[in-house]
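Entry 14. Structure prediction run on the chain below.
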Amino acid sequence: QRQLVESGGGLVQAGGSLRLSCAASGFTLHYWSIGWFRQAPGKEREGVSTISGSSSRTFYSDSVKGRFTTSIDNAKTTVYLQMNSLKPEDTAVYYCAVGAGDPELLLHPANVGDFEVWGQGTRVNVSS
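Output returned:
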């Protein structure tokens, strides 16, 4: 059974950093595009970044570009989201998901339905 488990969320002050992890079990991430999403209270789920499991190409939304970095381990089992210079507006539940297809296209909001497996989410709270 394919599963994704996120970890690393928590409470941090504005300007601080957190690193989230997304661990896959039951399958390798090599053949997938992996996305990070977030959902703040009362808001729609937002794509944050995507990464190709094979090439490690990364793509970011404008709201996090230059502050967040996505990477994948050599074993292709875990994806990371390094979040720096955090802002209160980054407060949300963060999810990872896997989908087939081009990671740049999958970052588009219209394609969120193309992600097949989702984790349970990890909460990030950024205080001002």
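Residues 43 and 92 are 9 Å apart (CA to CA).
Filed with the rest of this week's runs.
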